[in-house]
Amino acid sequence: MVRECYIPYLHLEMHFLKCANESSRSIRAQVDRVKVEFELEVKISNSLAHDAMAIFLALQSPEVEVIGLTTIYGNVYTTLATRNALHLLEIAGRTDIPVAEGSHVTITKGTKLRIADFVHGTDGLGNQNFPPPKGKPIELSAADFLIQQASCYPGKVTVVALGPLTNIALAIQSDPHFVKNIQQIVVLGGAFAVNGNVNPAAEANIFGDPDAADVVFTSGADVLAVGINVTHQVFFTDADRDKLAESNGKYAQYLCKILDVYYSYHHVAYSTKGVYLHDPTALLAAVTPSLITFTEGVVRVQTTGITRGLTLFYNKQKRFGEVTEWSDKPSVKVAVTVDAPAVINLVMERLTNS
């Protein structure tokens, strides 16, 4: 439950917000009690099918407490992402968790958004056309909600950003203390040394608002980027889906209903019999950091031209003589490998036992 802070300022693309209370279990030996926020795009910026899996997985993870969802455009527009987030919380019986609606435009006020509704269906949830949720979003915007929570619990909130980074960038620009107050920002985004999934250069979440992504990566916050170079290592097969369907888990049964469009997209786009678990992998990287390995360096984002959305990594092994746009920029963490079998096992265990 989110506690009142009475701070005028205070961020699920989709983002999820996770906040640990005094009785919460540590998720790392060296870190005492964390609050994690997921940005619902549902991705959750948009509440989409794979975002739904990540949200349910978070709700089934005893290591953390989800304290809020924020929404952003991506696979659907922001308004529909908010509706889907509220719907998923009703399905989960967790209407106590607040939903804050995010930006409807990019950080540069761009209104020509890339809405990839062919990935999860026009409703973002497998074209199931569920009835409208009863709940409503809170009055605070996603950016203000992020600022508020980071201010209430300095050093204890982790944002898991599953969509374009507009809301987080707005929080960074609005509050000079946000970068220091937030514990970590786990970004599902980027294609490091591999092709993108929007075009050969760009991954979808970064492509959605590359200017915002560059703000986040160069902000000085503790950022962990989990790109498709890693999430494509985690493959959920048709056989895995069949196991979900055979279980009695509430979340497992719901997900099996909404995943048809996502599976069909992968069959056509990648010629695969299964799907990549992008969002659940990013979520579990926040919950159980030992599942991944990472390198550190500067990340910049190309914001124009045919490589718009390209994530570029500088490992700082060479010192350049000239002062450039790369000079004196802070390092971030970039995931390199993941224990894919362990991720699949955790997903199956927690969803089938829901």
Automatic annotation (TrEMBL):
Instruction: Outline the extent of the Inosine/uridine-preferring nucleoside hydrolase domain.
Output: 51-344
- Which InterPro entries does the annotation name? Inosine/uridine_hydrolase_dom (IPR001910), IUNH (IPR023186), Ribo_hydro-like (IPR036452)
Entry annotated with the keyword Hydrolase: yes
Keywords of this protein's UniProt record, alphabetized?
A: Glycosidase, Hydrolase
Instruction: Tell me one Pfam family matched here.
Output: IU_nuc_hydro
- Record carries keyword 4Fe-4S: no
Q: Superkingdom of the source?
A: Eukaryota
Give the similarity note. Belongs to the IUNH family.
Q: What is this protein called?
A: Probable uridine nucleosidase 2 isoform X2
Q: Which gene encodes it?
A: LOC140037769
